[in-house]
Amino acid sequence: MGIDHRAFVSGGRDGVERFMRISVVGCGYLGAVHAAAMADLGHEVVGVDVDESKIAALREARAPFYEPGFEELLARTLATGRLRFSTDVAEAAGAQLHFVCVGTPQKRGENGADLRYVEAAAESLLGVVSPGDLVVGKSTVPVGTAARLAELVGGKVPGALLAWNPEFLREGFAVHDTLHPDRLVYGLPDGADGATAERMLDEVYAPIVARGTPKVITDYATAEMVKTAANSFLATKISFINAMAELCEATGADVCQLADAIGYDDRIGRKFLNAGLGFGGGCLPKDIRAFMARAGELGADQALTFLREVDNINMRRRIRMVELAREVCGGSLLGKRIAVLGAAFKPDSDDIRDSPALNVAAQLQLQGAVVRVTDPAAVENSRREWPHLDYAATPEEAAERADAVLLLTEWKQYRELDPVAFGKVVAGKRVLDGRNALDRETWTAAGWTYRALGRRAG
Ligand code: UDX
Predict the structure, then answer these.
(1) FRET label pair with 274: which of 140, 196, 348, 409, CA 20 to 30 Å apart?
(2) What is the mean pLDDT of residues 189-198?
(3) Does residue 284 have its Cβ closer than 6 Å to ligand 1?
(4) Taking the C-alpha atoms of 169, 171, 176 and 182 in order, what is their torsion angle to the nearest 10 degrees?
């Protein structure tokens, strides 16, 4: 996955290596990967975060989160000497570009985005930014934030500019998505300042631009909206197929075949039409809510009322899963032993933010079931956030004497379980496929009762 730096040199505007000095503020999923990826492109990068343990781990080439390929990238770039990490924002002084990569979680008790970390990052940068520097926002923010920050930066440091450059990385594919994005979006100030900012971003992303990656040059508001619109579209697509799953449950139709059949139409496409327990994670749920909240503030709430329904459909899937578990357990969950395979919000991640799997596991336990949860990567995080649940190291351990097994996150190792061998550890061969990820025929042939969302009982 390494980038050929010779190509970068020859791609430079005047034949010299045009590496840049960069700071990245916020070293979470987005920032840490961005910092290492920018060093991999040949730049000199300092990653800054207030969390000392995170910085200590990154300095030792240990990833503070599970992300395939990231530790290798980290080790490789740290070894070049081009990448360092610090808790002191003063270290960002001297950089020409300052990327803001902090989180924008949902506000407590409200739908809107909590901008306190973005604001703190911008404030802290004001002390180190010099005239001619470019501050680049990558965090997902409510529309209007960039214009406000541009005024703040330009007001305090005349000659310093701001651009908005949203990031579309998917967890589990963060390294690939950062080094090989499918598009670049630059939200720029007007006029000559915009041209300067564009040139600086093109220099940073030189190998990516040279590859012919589509580039959208636009204003701040559009750039901010691209991100929330993209995530809203993806959430809508998932909830659309899950609404179809509800209808399939009422009619006896099969949602997987339906998705395949409509997905062949390339105007629709099969991607993001996997029916199941629905979306979770640190982005889709909070982004659609923050988008609705912002539309309300702008007096355009009607435009996004459909997203409330998207959210409702998504949440109903979790309730349906609990009902289905009760059904296969003979009408009551009391004292029933249930194995939950998967805790992360999706496979190849240890992220449990708004995880549908843990939400279902907790509801089952509250309703009297004896629940054991397992996950290849997310048990440690889950134990911290959901200490009342019981955890197991392996699927076999979780499923020992279980009355039902629920597959709630479709890790490869769960999809490849051998239903014959696995059948020997459980008390009752009942499997609920919350992600439509198992092969129904193989499981039923091994004597299991197979139930899934949006499909007939097998
Ligand atoms: C998402 C966007 O994809 C990414 O572009 C953006 O930058 C951040 O938010 P991510 O949260 O990593 O990325 O996960 P994604 O792969 O989009 O999955 C989101 C959720 O939808 C997961 O819980 C997943 O299980 C669920 N999902 C996805 C489905 O239920 N069905 C599908 O067909 C696809």
Answers:
(1) 140
(2) 98
(3) yes
(4) -30
Residue appearing with tokens 């596991």? 361
Looking at residues 370-391, what average pLDDT do you find? 98
CA angle, 178 then 106 then 293, to 5°: 105
Q: What angle do CA 303, 309, 315 make, to 5 degrees?
A: 145
Closest atom of ligand 1 relative to the 167 alpha carbon? 7
Could you give all domains of the chain from N- to C-terminal order, each with its CATH number? Answer: 6-218 (3.40.50.720), 254-452 (3.40.50.720)
List beta partners, residue 338: 371, 404
Cβ atoms within 10 Å, residue 73: 25
pLDDT at residue number 11: 37
Give Cβ neighbours of residue 428 (< 8 Å, ≥ 6 apart): 402, 403, 404
Q: How would you class 89 by CB atoms within 10 Å of its CB: exposed for 0-12, middle for 13-18, buried for 19 or more? A: buried
| Structure-token pair, residue 207 | 């190998």
> In this structure, how many other beta carbons lie within 10 angstroms of the beta carbon of residue 78?
18
Q: Structure pTM?
A: 0.95
Sheet hosting strand 134-137, strand order edge to edge: 83-86, 44-48, 21-25, 97-100, 134-137, 161-164, 184-187, 215-218
> β-pairing, 134-137 with 161-164?
parallel
Torsion sign over Cα 75, 80, 82, 88: positive
Q: What is the DSSP letter of 143?
A: T
Please tell me the distance between residue 204's alpha carbon and the centre of ligand 1 in angstroms. 27
List, for residues 81-113, the tens digit of each pLDDT value.
999 999 999 999 999 999 999 999 999 999 999
Nearest atom in ligand 1 to 349's CA: 12
Distance between CA atoms of residues 11 and 371, nearest Å? 57
Confidence check: pLDDT of 22 > 50? yes
* Ligand 1 atom with least separation from CA of 435: 30
Of 394, 398, 335, 387, residue with least CA distance to 362: 387
Q: Is the CB of 280 under 6 A from ligand 1?
A: yes
| pLDDT on residue 3 | 41
pLDDT band at 275 (very low <50, low <70, confident <90, very high): very high
Q: Atom 27 (ligand 1): residue with closest C-alpha?
A: 279
- Residue 219, Cβ neighbours under 10 Å: how many? 17
Q: Encoding tokens for residue 242?
A: 């899950």
Q: Is 29 in the pocket of ligand 1 (CB under 6 A)?
A: no
- How many Cα atoms are found within 13 Å in the side-chain-facing hemisphere of 175? 21
User: What pLDDT, on the 0 to 100 scale, is given for residue 4?
Assistant: 39
CA of 232 to the centre of ligand 1 (A): 11
